Amino acid sequence: MTRALLLTLMLSGCWKLERTEIPDGVVSFAPAANPSLEDWTVTEIELDLECPDGANSRLYVVHPASVDGPMPAAVLYHSGSFDFVSAPNAADPTGGAHLQDPPRLNSEWGVRMAYATLGMYPPPLNGEVHEGALPAALADAGVAMVLPVNCWGDLWHNEPGAADNDFEADLFFRSGRVSAEWGYRLLAEPLFAEAIGADLPFEPDPDALYAIGLGEGGRAVGELLAIDDDGDGTPDYAPRAIAVDSMIDDIARLPEAQPATAAGIDRIFQGEYSGGLRGISRLPPTVFVHSPVDAVIPSGSNDSILSKLETNPDKHRIIEGIAALHVLSNADVQIASDVVDFLLAAE
Length: 347
Prior knowledge:
CATH superfamily: Alpha/Beta hydrolase fold, catalytic domain
Low-confidence stretches: 1-22
CATH class: Alpha Beta
Helix content: 25-40%
Number of domains: 1
Distance between the termini: 49 Å
Number of strands: 9
Order of helices and strands: HEEEEHHEHHHEHEHHEHEH
CATH architecture: 3-Layer(aba) Sandwich
Largest sheet: 9 strands, mixed
Shape: globular
Mean pLDDT: 92
Structural class: alpha/beta
Number of helices: 11
């Protein structure tokens, strides 16, 4: 297949699920929510970070085709990053029966989810609608984006040597937290791009950096805010504001509500739960989007974080949807606009 035909299929929404060819390079940003958006580009960056299937992970940068000076930027974490193999074998650790269908422990699924988040590909998830409303609103407001990919199914939690998964049970290493941190470091640290061999195609404004998580991607935001590698009691990263949409904050509630997930949660966290926003002592301005009738969210799992945000309504905002959907802001143009307005107004 020619490169031109591949791009045509992607941008027309006709890229079929069974496709095995992974897009690369540079394509026009054309979200379904705003197909008339002009002069914005999606640039793929391959990372020296191995997915469970042996392929390298990627991240995607959304930026103006022509950039003039520093610009605000957000790291945007996609949803759906949870999966495990019930009974893996050493010859093919990801080849057995998965919790999820389609399986989410391969680089191709991560690429598909990144393009789905951008509203440029039908989402490979049941029960979620992604039209790219949020990245379209960010671009319309002049905010560039970095989208890390999670191909490890670890709710963005694991980092070899720092937050290990149960290797004996999985038979591979998970690295979702590494991907989450690298995405933000590309924006926050000018020399980090060179260190990992990435060429960031725009200059971020260090005073206007944001972190956003959709669905399970909200836990990446919590993981990021909890990193304190030098142990000085101050988080290593301080985005100006954050947004999370349809997050499960108290992850311990998930196996209680859905017993089929218990083995995977045990392998990922090994009893040491992290990634919840309720445990962050000094939250930046936070907009929390959720639907009380979202069947994916276990009852009570967000009670603590909602109570925490409600105590400071001048700093934080809660957007409550009425639809029984998981992830609201990426298909609802008004909610997406409200989220972006909150982020840009944060002090």
